[in-house]
Design brief:
- The complex is a heterodimer of chains A (about 800) and B (about 170).
- With about 800 residues, chain A is α+β, with helices and mostly antiparallel strands.
- Chain A is built from 19 helices and 31 strands.
- The longest helix of chain A is centred in the last third of the chain and has 28 residues.
- Chain B folds into two domains: about 80 residues, Ubiquitin-like (UB roll) (Roll); about 80 residues, Orthogonal Bundle (DNA polymerase, domain 1), CATH 1.10.150.120.
- Helix content of chain B is about 35%, strand content about 15%.
- Chain B has a five-stranded mixed sheet, sandwiched between helices.
- In chain B, a hairpin with a 2-residue loop joins strand 3 and strand 4.
- In chain B, helix 2 packs across helix 5.
- The chains are: A alpha+beta (about 800), B alpha+beta (about 170).
- At the A-B interface, helix 1 and helix 17 of A face helix 2, helix 3, helix 4 and helix 5 of B.
Chain lengths: ~800, ~170
């Protein structure tokens, strides 16, 4: 059945969990209370780099109220990590700590205070090693090894890829620019601190409730780490109080809670303090970047060579993927016929970096969009026009073999240019005021899973009850983005019922089919397509049964307004609940699976698995700023952002994602910094780690651009991450427009602006940013033919559609 | 050491024997199981744990319960009357002002105190009132919109129109 008009899709409905959230009913992990529950606490290293010589927990164990104390000796000696290629973490360190905050022991006690007191009674003898606190430091001291593995001493990963001949592309160019940029690290800062409750029953079965974005990966890894068959482990994702990528790894507190529960025979809860959340991190990598691009006179890009150095921190986490991502998506916004990428991730003795909203792509996007602004200035072109003229083509492949489907970027640019008054304002704003533009693209779901397999990335079961209720069982995790609601809307749309008639049961590894998790902006597309498939299978059965009852054929039926009826004779029909009874009478229990896996389109080269996605979202952003020449303070006064979302399943929720992304981008570009001193986080609190409040967040004008994509559920693309990306360079470009300085590193603090203005006054460049890159010889690149302009293949190929 | 506390919470008298060092936040969550009040830092920095004490927004992570005796304490659980949502709650539902919902209780209560004091706040006044409540999801836009909508409805004394489908169908699910 094809529907041109939707009844649910496209409407700004409340989220299905909105009522629970406004009355305080939503149970986050730390809200779970169980009888006999013990409270756990981790003891963490005070040293950035040290050998553990001895741990003695005798005094802690003797403290009244302490139920259990464990160290690394109480866990199997097996290292783990979220990526199969970087198994380098221990839940409790045994021989060595690699950062301040590395856990070394864990306590379960009658209450938080006793657990905390007990951690102070654990005696740990350390032998401090030289801490390596920067990329330069780690490269300069290969004799001090943070890990024993990696592509080079202290170098986790080195990548070198070349798609076509960039040198001749530069030779053909009218302008070749080389620029260096630095993007400071920052953290997710979810309002909810991570929390987990574990209950290891006397039957040997383990249940973990956790604020996690990836219950499936936690499930798999718990089995490995605890050496328990996965069939005996159940992981339930509690509603997550903000994720942004910060709750995507398996964490020490989750593992420790499980083992403590086993040892003391009670449920054990561990909730991190805010300070611990800063050390757990896995946030934005600090990245130093060198970018060389050739431009023709009219602003077309002839080729690009991009280098990135990532400060990875102490562990692998998602770092290999992050490294590839710093070089993956440059090619999907504008035509770039040939492209070369070299990247390296370096270990340092700081909390590990990982995936934060936009995973590895905001940094290169900042570099690239600022460089385009500089090139436009040099070529005498309008920055918006220059971008508009060089848009990538839809339905072709990029130089690095990514298949692009729909591209709404042109309309995005037109709409923000129009709405912001760009043409009137550019160059004619009063002194100190400026306007800047930037564009971006992002994945709608990673095209490959974290571990290689042929199974679905998302599974959904839709079950119709004879009461008329429809239950949706999905492994997807709602982290506030509204994924449970989106599944309800999609199923309601297919079945012609209301979201209220549906209950979504999410993220319970015992009950729900696997969904890989809430990352890479994958849930609406992947779980959504699976939900539609399951609902359509149910609908087919309902139609068969109703057709028999009405003595007609299924193809003449439609479902709407809680009825199943003959499309051209609406009087002839039955209520939805009656349709279920008819179908259950005919077929038995009505429960139908839906499965989704993305089209297999990874480039046939090592590293080709990072970057492919069923489709890409596009965004364009204009920011107006006010720069105080005396204090250097940058105030964004207004933001216009247009986002190509394919189709807005619920415009209200899409706007919410866009606004939240803009806000987070403003925080990253103007104030947020994850910075260290003597191995310690300099500002591990919500007061000192500056993030925008209502007073620093300007009015945000959101424009949704729609054009259904064949890959998405009813044409939808992502909205949760992409809109963050253009905000950062748009601010930097606006600052240049306002006062003529180029701040080539984030955050653009008042201090940096003042310094750059001073340099301008002295007749110098007015640029502030990194002056050089590390001495680092990349290996010979893997040379792959550029796929630029080749036709797209395998559009809307659905591996589990039959 | 424990202290006996007589607290008036959401219109109910609650006697509780709690550890003397516990904050109001801890007593609410751990002893009274009113887990609607959340925490983001327990250092008075984020506004997440805001409750109303005598109608004034108070950071419950810094408040001692013994000092709150004899004064009405209101948590998010006390905002709705039965199933009738407070206009702020209703507006937050309709306008998508709660994403993850973790900061929502504190913001709702801070906004309620604002509207009590200032029934016709400008957007800027709402911004100032909520400046102590961090939200990482929404970019604040929908929150400001929702407070404006609720203020408008409360001034007009009107019941919120059935703007949402769920609402049109009666009680909340």
């Amino acid at each position: 059945m094809k529907k041109d008009a939707f009844s649910i899709v496209g409407q700004s409905l409340p989220k299905i969990d909105a009522w629970a959230k406004v009355v305080g009913d939503t149970k986050f992990a730390d809200d779970l209370l169980m009888s006999r529950m013990a409270h756990g606490k981790l003891l963490r290293s005070p040293h950035p780099h040290a050998l553990i010589k001895r741990i003695d927990a005798t005094r802690a164990r003797a403290l009244p109220g302490v139920y259990a104390v464990i160290t690394g000796q109480d866990l199997p000696r097996v290292k783990f990590g979220i990526l199969p290629v970087s198994q380098d973490e221990e839940a409790l360190c045994v021989d060595k700590v690699r950062m301040v905050g590395d856990p070394v022991a864990a306590v379960a006690a009658v209450d938080d205070e006793t657990a905390e007191r007990a951690t102070h009674l654990i005696d740990v003898e350390y032998e401090p090693l030289r801490p390596l606190m920067s990329i330069e430091d780690s490269l300069a001291h290969p004799e001090v090894r943070i890990h024993e593995y990696g592509d080079r001493p202290n170098v986790h990963k080195v990548v070198a890829l070349q798609f076509g001949d960039v040198d001749s592309a530069f030779a053909r160019a009218d302008l070749v620019r080389e620029d260096v940029f630095f993007f400071e690290g920052n953290t997710h800062l979810p309002m909810e601190q991570h929390s987990a409750v574990a209950q290891w029953g006397p039957d040997g079965k383990l249940t973990l409730w956790s604020s996690t974005q990836t219950p499936h990966y936690v499930h798999r890894l718990l089995s490995k780490i605890l050496d328990v068959p996965p069939a005996h482990i159940r992981v339930v994702a509690a509603p997550v109080g903000g994720g942004f990528g910060g709750k995507l790894d398996p964490f020490a507190h989750e593992i420790a809670a499980c083992r403590l529960s086993q040892v003391c025979g009670r449920p054990v809860k561990i909730t991190l303090t805010r300070e611990e959340v800063f050390y757990v991190h896995r946030g934005r990598h600090p990245v130093l970047m060198w970018i060389k691009t050739g431009f023709t006179r009219d602003g077309a890009i002839t080729g690009m060579h991009f280098r990135s150095w990532l400060d990875g921190g102490a562990y692998g986490s998602y770092g290999v993927a992050s490294t590839f991502y710093t070089g993956a998506l440059q090619t999907v916004t504008y035509k770039i016929p040939v492209y070369k990428f070299e990247g390296a991730r370096v270990f340092t003795n700081k909390p590990p970096c990982g995936p934060k909203r936009g995973h590895g792509t905001p940094q290169p996007r900042f570099a690239m969009e600022c460089q385009i602004d500089k090139a436009a200035e040099q070529l005498g072109l309008d920055p918006a026009d220059m971008r508009r003229r060089n848009l990538a083509e839809p339905y072709v492949r990029t130089a690095n073999h990514l298949t692009v489907t729909t591209i709404g970027l042109g309309e995005c640019i037109d709409r923000v240019v129009e709405a912001s008054g760009w043409r009137q304002k550019r160059g004619s704003l009063p002194p100190g005021k400026g306007i800047g533009i930037a564009c971006s693209a992002y994945l709608t779901g990673a095209g490959t899973a974290i571990y290689w397999n042929d199974m679905p990335h998302s599974g959904v079961v839709v079950r119709a009850d004879r009461s008329g209720l429809v239950a949706v069982l999905s492994g997807a995790t709602d982290i506030g983005q509204g994924s449970d609601s989106v599944l309800a809307y999609l199923v309601a749309e297919v079945l012609g019922i209301e979201p209220k008639d549906i209950r979504v049961h999410p993220a319970d590894t015992d009950l729900t089919p696997v969904d890989l998790g809430s990352y890479s902006s994958r849930v609406t597309l992947m779980a959504g397509n699976a939900a539609i498939q399951a609902a359509e299978r149910l609908r087919a059965r309902l139609f068969e049964a109703v057709a028999r009852k009405l003595e007609t054929t299924p193809d003449r039926l439609t479902a709407a307004e809680r009825r199943v009826f003959v499309a051209d004779d609406p009087e002839r029909g039955v209520d939805f609940a009656q349709a279920v009874v008819l179908a259950e009478s005919m077929f038995g229990v009505l429960a139908f699976p839906g499965s989704y896996a993305p089209p297999k389109r990874a480039g046939k080269y090592k590293g080709g698995g990072v970057g492919p996605s069923p489709c890409y979202s596009y965004s364009a952003c204009v920011v107006e700023v006010d720069v105080d020449r005396e204090t250097g303070k940058v105030t964004p006064t207004e933001v216009w952002i247009a986002h190509d979302v394919g189709r807005a399943i619920n415009p209200l929720l899409v706007e919410g994602q866009v606004e939240g992304s803009v806000y987070m981008g403003l925080g990253e570009v103007l104030m947020e910094e994850q910075v260290f001193r003597d191995g310690m986080h300099k500002i591990p609190s919500l007061l000192e780690y500056k993030s925008p409040t209502t007073l620093e967040t300007p009015e945000i004008h959101t424009i949704l651009v729609e054009g259904a994509d064949p890959e998405g559920p009813f044409g939808a693309k992502e909205a949760g991450q992409g809109p963050l990306l253009p905000v950062i360079p748009a601010v930097a470009n606006a600052v240049h427009d306002a006062v003529g300085v180029r701040i080539d590193e984030t955050p653009i603090t008042p201090e940096k602006v003042v310094k750059a203005l001073e340099s301008l006054r002295q007749g110098k460049s007015g640029r502030l940013g990194p002056e050089r890159v590390p001495v680092f010889a990349f290996p010979e690149p893997r040379v792959v033919e550029s796929a630029f302009g080749l036709p797209a293949e395998g559009i809307a190929a659905r591996p589990f559609s039959s | 050491m424990k202290t006996r506390l007589s607290l008036r919470i959401n219109g109910e008298e609650r006697d509780v024997l709690a550890d003397t060092h516990k904050t109001l936040l801890e007593v609410l969550r751990e002893d009274l199981h009113l887990t609607g009040t959340k925490h983001g830092c327990e250092l008075g920095e984020c506004g997440t744990c805001t409750v109303l004490v005598g109608g004034t927004p108070v950071l419950s992570c810094l408040a001692l319960p013994i000092e709150c005796q004899g004064v009405e304490i209101k948590t998010v659980e006390g905002m709705a009357r039965g199933h009738e949502l407070h206009p702020l709650q209703q507006a937050f539902v309709e306008l998508g002002a709660a994403q993850c919902g973790y900061c929502t209780p504190g913001i709702l209560l801070t906004a309620e105190a604002l509207l009590e004091e200032l029934p016709m706040p400008t957007r800027d006044e709402i911004r100032h009132a909520l400046a102590g409540n961090l939200c990482r999801c929404t970019g604040y836009t929908k929150i400001l919109d929702a407070v404006e909508l609720a203020a408008l409805r409360m001034r007009q004394g009107e019941m919120p129109p059935p703007a949402s489908r769920a609402e049109a169908e009666g009680a909340r699910p």
